[in-house]
Prior knowledge:
Mean pLDDT: 92
Structural class: alpha+beta
Strand content: 25-35%
Largest sheet: 8 strands, mixed
CATH architecture of the largest domain: 2-Layer Sandwich
Number of domains: 2
Helix content: 25-40%
CATH superfamily of the largest domain: Bira Bifunctional Protein, Domain 2
Number of strands: 20
Number of helices: 15
Amino acid sequence: xxxxxxxxxxxxxxxxxxxxxxxxxxxxxxxxxxxxxxxxxxxxxxxxxxxxxxxxxxxxxxxxxxxxxxxxxxxxxxxxxxxxxxxxxxxxxxxxxxxxxxxxxxxxxxxxxxxxxxxxxxxxxxxxxxxxxxxxxxxxxxxxxxxxxxxxxxxxxxxxxxxxxxxxxxxxxxxxxxxxxxxxxxxxxxxxxxxxxxxxxxxxxxxxxxxxxxxxxxxxxxxxxxxxxxxxxxxxxxxxxxxxxxxxxxxxxxxxxxxxxxxxxxxxxxxxxxxxxxxxxxxxxxxxxxxxxxxxxxxxxxxxxxxxxxxxxxxxxxxxxxxxxxxxxxxxxxxxxxxxxxxxxxxxxxxxxxxxxxxxxxxxxxxxxxxxxxxxxxxxxxxxxxxxxxxxxxxxxxxxxxxxxxxxxxxxxxxxxxxxxxxxxxxxxxxxxxxxxxxxxxxxxxxxxxxxxxxxxxxxxxxxxxxxxxxxxxxxxxxxxxxxxxxxxxxxxxxxxxxxxxxxxxxxxx
Length: 510
């Protein structure tokens, strides 16, 4: 590979560091006592501009700026919490006759992006900037590639910023180094999952793990990724959902289980879809979808408030302010279509639905059954208009092969989806526990597959066998973690809330 001039210089510096007897990639532990954020915060409360209550600190991080002034220098260190300035004097870090640690290493061989550790006391410069007066200096790691160095001119314009989306998503390690403000997205993601786990543990549900490699890709309507197991000599699939295995555990006698699962769907990629995504699913015995709506409201209200530091349940997304505080509006699917299109689908058969689709300019094809047609109408004319949290309830039976029939409404099932800011965030059922009915639903799915529906659900004989041993009334739900994080952080693209989203193959020659 042809290297740039700066890369060649850094490799030359690497060898010169070794010639000084210093290991540029040391293995020893370096004991950090404080983070940059802690030092800067403590210094804000100092009684005068020269001292704080921090007598000695040890920090480590990347060198992000450097200003040499002969026998002394200022530099900026960036750690996981932010940046702090350091002041380095030649005679402090190299008190003897040998001044190579400062004159050669610090002044000439230290590059931006290198990792160093320093120990010293905190003070404030004459301009009032918190700094560390360095007494000990340790080299901790060499950066062999130059980091992008955004610059702001006198007019406030930023030049050479690392802001190309493809580069940022592909090289997240560079993105989060030079654009550290994006780290807060992932901190909020972590806090969200921690809060949700805490709430579910409070309900005395048990966290479990289920297989990612499966012989049958059940639990959702989606195309799977297919692979092959050499030892077993059989095809296998990456799971598209963990629903059927979690319900097997309800059969086994667990009253409540949950899993933060990595699922995979071999479908299109866009601003709200990634082939690999994170889904929270939980199932609770002796409950129904009405109970689950109440629980979902309480879970999201608690989690969002926790992520926001316990202060508010609202988030700002573009021009919209979303409030996660319950109760949420509840609207049947038929009523939602009537409200936003004026069309009544309650008694419409497949032919009538195709006529409605034609009037509404909704695309259809021959593979679509009644449920798929209704889903297309809803997706085209209703979903995007639901901004505040809204439960869409009581779906047609054709759309929900794993859901219990509605107890009082013929042709419908006890299902809801939670729509927020025009996107589905959660999907929930009163779970179908009648094995005879379930087999008939799978058979209907097989007919759709024969018509060319490649998202239809396959027959799962082992799951049917489990149901035949008996499953209690159960409520289940799946919540899309990635989309929820998008809402809480105001992001319009799912790629912004994934550390490493799927990308096209990189052209390394280019």
